[in-house]
Known about the structure:
Helices cover 53% and strands 11% of the residues. By secondary structure, it is of the alpha/beta class. The chain folds into 2 domains: 2-228, Spore Coat Polysaccharide Biosynthesis Protein SpsA, Chain A; 242-366, no CATH class. The longest helix is centred in the middle third of the chain and has 37 residues, at 230-266. The radius of gyration is 24 Å and the shape is elongated.
Amino acid sequence: xxxxxxxxxxxxxxxxxxxxxxxxxxxxxxxxxxxxxxxxxxxxxxxxxxxxxxxxxxxxxxxxxxxxxxxxxxxxxxxxxxxxxxxxxxxxxxxxxxxxxxxxxxxxxxxxxxxxxxxxxxxxxxxxxxxxxxxxxxxxxxxxxxxxxxxxxxxxxxxxxxxxxxxxxxxxxxxxxxxxxxxxxxxxxxxxxxxxxxxxxxxxxxxxxxxxxxxxxxxxxxxxxxxxxxxxxxxxxxxxxxxxxxxxxxxxxxxxxxxxxxxxxxxxxxxxxxxxxxxxxxxxxxxxxxxxxxxxxxxxxxxxxxxxxxxxxxxxxxxxxxxxxxxxxxxxxxxxxxxxxxxxxxxxxxxxxxxxxxxxxxxxxxxxxxxxxxxxx
Length: 377
């Protein structure tokens, strides 16, 4: 449950059309948040600012009270802390309900790392290209807190592996989110920092252009107001990649189990390989399509491509088994595991870039379709 409190000025104003809202999730913020919001309201002409108090507690009530007195500000107070993702989701739901005409939302962090002028420039940049997902990227040169270095390096590798995009600052909290993506995010299940990674995955698979814009890098000594926990939050972010790995592992177990049973009965490597791959492929296709690549492309388009990949995999695995058994002292089962471990990484790239590659929104519209709701795991 949460409570909402508009600023004093908003209580006496009639509703106005808003094309861009600024959304700031805040958990136990410093007093610098007041200065950031003041900077926004002092210079902004069109933006409404929504601040979500993510269960900060009574000792921080004075900060949010001061913010709520600023013009064009709305404070949402949550009783319990549920994580940054949950706070963003509640803020997005509120904005979509209260400002149905809104074209996009610019999110910013509450720890003083984002200069108000950079936030406003992101609003202006969004207005120039309202269909793009814009990231305000920091420069990671100089004295950067260790927790920020760890998180960014980890997610950079993860994003590049999973999506193929080279995003230099995947954890930035300063983002301009277009309306098309905004409407999908309330369905996301993530509640912590991994919500922002899910946002990138959703944008990729909606075919939205992802644009990077440089911003100032502001870090206070020790970065005391940051609540990013390198080990725990990096593990939660890594769960996104683990979904693919886990599905691949289950598929491999099923494949090898069927292969073992058939090979034990028939002694025929090719027959055992083909039947095992058919059985595991049907499970893998369904699971990967829904849980990893979040694809809404019709089966008529995806399935022929996937079956072609499965057939090619089956042939390459059979060739690998044959070559390995002849070249080194290894049995059939060991050779199969070795060959298919190498194929695992190739499969990820092929599935990402060809089979489950999303159509852009314009492509969907050309086909007479409306973009479907995206259920983000």
